[in-house]
Amino acid sequence: MRWSFLLTFFIHTLASAADVTVIKAALEAAIKAGQTPGAVLWMARGGEETHWAQGHRSLVPVKQVMTEDTIFDAASLTKVVATTPSVLLLIEQGKIELDAPVQRYLSGYSHAAVTVKHLLTHTSGLPSGIPKDEANPDWVGYDEGIKRALACAPDPAPGTLFRYSDVNFILLGEIVHRVSGQTLDAFAKANVFDVLKMKSTGYKPSKALLPRIAPTERDAEGNMLRGAVHDPTSRRMGGVAGHAGLFTTASDLARYAKAIMRGEVDGIRLLKPETLKLMTSVQTPSTLTEKRGLGWDIDTRYSRPRGTAFALGSFGHTGWTGTAMWMDPASDSFYILLTTRLHPDGKGNVRDLYEETGTLVARALNVRPFVPTVLNGIDVLKRDGFFQLKGLRLGLITNHTGIDSERNATIDILAKAPGVKLVRLFSPEHGIRGELDQEKIDDTKDARTGLPVVSLYSEKKRAPDAADLAGLDALVFDIQDIGCRFYTYIATLKNGLEAAAKAKVKFIVLDRINPIRGDRVEGPVMLDKPVFTAIHMIPLRHGMTAGELARMFNAEARLGASLQVIRTEGWKRDQWMDASGLPWQNPSPNMRNLNAATLYPGIGLLEYAISVGRGTDTPFEVIGAPFIDDRLLAHELNQMHLPGIRFQPVQFTPTASVFAKQACGGVRLLITDRDALPSVALGLAIGHTLHRLYAKDFDLTKFNTLLNHSPSIEMLKAGKPWSEINALWQQQAQMFEQRRNPFLDGAVGP
Known about the structure:
The chain is an alpha+beta fold. It is 30% helix and 15% strand.
């Protein structure tokens, strides 16, 4: 192919020649169409890179060939390359607080509801730019620009709307100035650019650099802007502002991208890992559809550089002058596209080119839609060729939730596993296929394998007996728990472990993640008495996996079982199940989604006293009773301002369970921020409110059925605030966290 413009490039082995040719052709088409005179593209994956320059740096007054060391007016990339890291460095130093009001750092700012985080996420409600002033249209000066930014008022209220705003970052730049005592350009140079050895990056480039700078367009006086910032507001303010003014090169931005995406470049770290995680993960309210990190764009109408192949969770930014960068941690890849689209007449447009380039680069880097899937114990067992079970005659405690990441049943997997003999199945509450919601379940036979199924939820049996375990070498457990004490699968786990210990049969747990996170512990630990729904002294929300609980049960109950746990791999304790890549399988007939599981440790406490939505389409997401005034209850609960939850009045008639076929008033529970939601405290707060409003109808004895903690009931009867009760619960939970630590993955061997 013949190129109409000179092309220079440097290519490692990263992308194939054919893929690179396709990208060059797309850039060439944009150049021919007048969208931009030229471009520099830099793409990388892992330790390999491909980069080149294409077209022209300038067309007037003279033509200059584009080179890789061309310096570009970065425009709004300033926000994420200069201002955001400067603010975050000051946060790490303890000089700025993310959730602090802006007026703490900017005296004279009168809007107390606007926080630093609102500015960083463009959720402040401030206007997109400094409003035009017909009386003084030619204002100039940095201080005058700050004065005008400070005068801007939020509309609507902060946190309720995403509006991309230069004012946000003008104010952030001034916060850096006042807090650090240095102008933004000086602080960013000393603490960001010099640290990362970004040698051609900075504000107000020197005259010596002018030959390398790509010009933009003519100003109002007809002067071609070259080395002077294009953004009119930044130019009025002297060329240094938090929203625009930075000049940089593709190679410098590549160093910055590595430092942000990988945590370091050439051994140099800029920010702490926890800061980088905060910076590049969603920080906008869950009520907004637009997703932004701190500074970075994740998923909004501005996310064109992501193209169609980079995954959600990747992030980047664009600049008005035709600059873009996008990073994908999942594939350890990034690209930078710098164009001169405003040269020479301001009419170029590269918005479509952003999306096309993102798609083509992802293809060249061999980035495909990728699901980072956590491995449960059965997946690890399969991967390892079942060597842990070779030569053993097995019994298997499982149900329909015992599946691998591809939804193959553990029953079928082990029945066909080489060198493994599956002899007998054991089923918990709801049966071997999870279809039964009844008080007792009889023994049966598995239709697919023909194996006998011993019910561990029959009228007389909740644990295997000696006859059930006769002839077995090991008893395997593979059931998905949901992280709540009164969900009975963990009782089956403990009973099976105890039976195996008595029979001298090895007990093997194919572990599974805790779907509602493994770092949250809530509720009372002490029990009135051990029962099937409270088999061990653990909190209502215990934050443990089945394998970790098995270790705890074995040690604390001194069972003496020969226990082995096939651990999960890739799961982090702060992950919800929907971040794991694993498929959801209803653990029981009424546990139909992760929202229900999230609410269950608290809402489940209510289910003997009122309807919790069994017999409706949304169990555990609605509650009610015939005696409840739905509007009154919703009002009372919303007035409590519980974090992460709102309440909507609702009327419904459940077809099953408590108050079946009776019209009920109640509330629908709307999760607004599950990370902030204390689910157990939610159940307590609702129970307290129902007792206050309907003392004659709401039976506290029934409320205690699953709570199993009479001292709390007595405090409710005495009129103690629910927050006081919850504080006592959390004291117990904190002590439990220390108690559980030795049994968590990473603390002990298998």
